[in-house]
Amino acid sequence: MSKNNTFDVIIIGAGPSGIFCAYELIRKKPELKVLMIEKGRPIEKRVCPKRTTRVCVGCKPCSITTGFAGAGAFSDGKLSLSPDVGGNLPEILGYDETAELLKESDDIYLKFGADQNVYGIDKQAEIEEIRRKAINANLKLIECPIRHLGTEEGYKIYTRLQEHLLSQGIVMEFNTMVKDIIIEGDTVKGVVTDRDEAYFAPEVVAAIGREGSDWFSHVCGDHHIETQVGTVDIGVRVEVRDEVMRFLNENLYEAKLVYYTPTFDDKVRTFCTNPSGEVATEYYENGLAVVNGHAYKSKEYKTNNTNFALLVSKNFTRPFNEPIEYGKHIAQLSNMLCGGRIMVQTFGDFQRGRRTTEERLCRNNLIPTLKDAVPGDLSLVFPYRIMTDIKEMILALDKVTPGIASDETLLYGVEVKFYSNKVVVDRDFKTSIHGLRAIGDGASVTRGLQQASANGISAARSILKRM
């Protein structure tokens, strides 16, 4: 690091939104001094011991959720190519501008090695049949072309992006936590790290992902940055045999279905489908274990099962303003019952209100891909309302793809998507603090790789316009 700690732009976080912001800044103005500060490790040093030992050793910070490329480095790597999916950019920028930004970010992924194939654009007759079944079940099918990177290929693409940014002069500080944002009056001045080192810039971009959403919520509270009470998505990861999902998988890859439950009128959605994939564990601060899933591109790593998330969107009203803590509390209940691991229950036991046992799980035809999951009872974790929402969604999905509501279907809990209290931003992603912009999933602006990447490009252009 140069002794000169003054930069033109400081980006907090090296997830997709931060990466694409840096990429666009340096592409348009190579002479800019840009600093990226990342809590985790460079991508080549992101190694999770659990992948070989099957035991979490509590790495700090966790290499699955932090580091260059954020949680996206080890995700299934699905790029949603429609403005209808993945965040709030259309509300901020308009539908057409968002669509153009998605295309531009997609072109960058292609430039760095993404698969040319796109799912969901050439099977109209089949998609119409899926939509017909969805309508009959009161489900809404959101059509969205998908480009699938694959877990291992996504890692390679982000590795190339890291090498490119470094070669263009982007300064990256890894294993460094931003302790606070320096604000004087109503203007940002820079940041201070956990090493008590200060860096200064007239433009600071908070590009923290979901892992940093809790930190950013507290920063917003401490500095009176304007926010609105946000959303937390809570639910389960469902696992079935590939045969049950084959028609949806082959024609859409990821069927995005939304349901408003008859009992409570709550919104439940499918998310992150992984054909022939594996259920996985993610770890957040203080060892909080939540469930996720991924799928590899290579045939040698494929399984016989498909997994996907069912998420109930919970919106809160004041005076309650801690949706992240609410989500953590539910996940902690599951962790408490399972010794810090993930709980699994068959749908048959879930409906009957009884705990799944090792014995019943062993005689199940469906073999769990998360080998250290603990058989248990999700009713001891979820509120009754969320239990009801999940049950009603699964029964509705069974009308679209019969077999989902089988007694043997596996439900893993808890899956939680953390978003900061929604930061109030304008169309340039400026917050109520002059010079401070908030982008990406952690700011509750986006909810996926592609919109986060597009968000980074847009924020960079706003910075350049101001300059």
TrEMBL record:
Keywords: Membrane, Transmembrane, Transmembrane helix
TM region positions: 6-26
Domain of life: Bacteria
Keyword Transmembrane helix applies: yes
Domain named FAD-dependent protein C-terminal: residues: 255-416
Keyword Signal annotated: no
Protein name: NAD(P)/FAD-dependent oxidoreductase
